[in-house]
């Protein structure tokens, strides 16, 4: 790669990383090419991207961005997992895919970046424990609907209570008339 190609590559990489809500760095030492290809295809099928980027190029791409704190983790063999639009779903996929390598310690998440902050490997797992976007939207909708539902209940209460009162009075009158 000559200088201009490197500059174009770094710009494209930088813009791609800025657009990603979740990025995870993995140490892939000891993983075979076949395992990496399987991992890559699995991640691509779920909307994630797996790249191996030279550490020097990655440092240049994240310099001057909030991701610059990831520079401390750019040592050795580093694979980048870049999420799509939903970071929580991406974290769940990362946890699911790396579960295969957990015992052998071959593919280990070193760090991550989510919502303006750097995460350790446990932090990426914690992101996976967050509720999904759909769950958050449904709970927000339930919260928004609860206010009008409560107001409607308060407005209907006097009429309902009056109806119960009249029903009770009617039953007392009918009982009194039946007793005579």
What structural class do helix, strand and pairing data support?
Answer: alpha+beta
Which range best describes the helical content: under 10%, 10-25%, 25-40%, 40-55%, 55-70% or over 70%?
Answer: 55-70%
Computed Rg: 29 Å
**Total count of helical runs of at least 4 residues:** 6
Mean pLDDT across all residues, rounded? 84
Give unreliable regions as ranges: none
Which oligomeric state applies? single chain
Task: Tell how many strands the DSSP assignment holds.
Answer: 5
The topology string of helices and strands comes to: HEHEHEHEEHH
Distance between the termini: 108 Å
Q: Can you tell me about this structure?
A:
The protein folds into 2 domains: 128 residues, Alpha-Beta Plaits (2-Layer Sandwich); 49 residues. The model has no long low-confidence stretch (mean pLDDT 84). The longest helix is centred in the last third of the chain and has 47 residues. The chain contains 6 helices and 5 strands; from the N terminus they run H-E-H-E-H-E-H-E-E-H-H. The relative contact order is 0.13. It is elongated and about 110 Å long. The chain has 180 residues and is α+β, with helices and mostly antiparallel strands. Helix 1 crosses helix 3 and helix 4 crosses helix 5. A 5-stranded antiparallel beta sheet has the order 2-3-1-4-5.
Task: List its traits.
14% strand; single chain; 5-stranded antiparallel beta sheet; 2 domains; 180 residues; 58% helix; Alpha-Beta Plaits; 6 helices; alpha+beta
């Amino acid at each position: 790669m000559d200088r201009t190609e490197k500059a174009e590559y770094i710009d494209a990489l930088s813009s791609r990383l800025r657009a990603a809500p979740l990025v995870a760095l993995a140490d892939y030492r000891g993983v075979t090419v076949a395992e990496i290809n399987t991992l890559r295809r699995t991640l691509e099928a779920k909307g994630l991207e797996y790249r191996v980027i030279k550490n020097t190029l990655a440092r240049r791409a994240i310099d001057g961005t909030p991701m610059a704190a990831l520079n401390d983790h750019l040592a050795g063999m580093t694979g980048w997992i870049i999420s799509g639009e939903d970071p929580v779903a991406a974290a769940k996929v990362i946890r699911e895919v790396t579960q295969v390598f957990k015992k052998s310690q071959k593919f280990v998440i070193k760090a991550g970046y989510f919502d303006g902050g750097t995460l350790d490997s446990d932090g990426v797992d914690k992101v996976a424990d967050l509720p999904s976007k759909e769950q958050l939207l449904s709970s927000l909708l339930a919260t928004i609907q609860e206010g009008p539902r409560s107001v409607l209940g308060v407005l209907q209460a006097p009429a309902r209570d009056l109806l119960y009162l009249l029903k009770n009075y009617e039953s007392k009158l009918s009982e009194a008339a039946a007793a005579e």
